[in-house]
Specification:
elongated
Length: 96
């Protein structure tokens, strides 16, 4: 659970807040008018958060690639090539 503090108080206690985050392992949320504005986390926490986000992003990208790859090649509907003025047609890879 994060400790919440108003921005005016955080400004006055910044050095103490930094020590609480770095040495106490706390997370501090600075608020303005009761709404979260910023969070203070240790550099180690930030590194963990960023690496977890990168892993989720890579997994999501892999899922999209997998989904698109599973679709295979879709041909044009009958008559669409002439309608759009396409002069060539892909037949797929040659088998030797």
């Amino acid at each position: 659970m994060a400790y919440e503090i108003p921005v005016t108080q955080a400004r006055a206690e910044l050095a103490d807040l930094i020590n609480r985050v770095v040495y106490g392992g706390e997370r501090v949320v600075v608020t303005r008018h009761g709404k979260p504005l910023v969070a203070l986390v240790s550099a180690a926490d930030l590194e963990r958060l960023e690496s977890a986000g990168a892993e989720r992003e890579a997994a999501a990208e892999e899922q999209v690639i997998s989904s698109v790859s599973s679709l295979g090649s879709l041909g044009s509907a009958p008559g669409e090539q002439g309608r759009f003025g396409l002069a060539a047609r892909h037949e797929g890879p040659e088998v030797r």
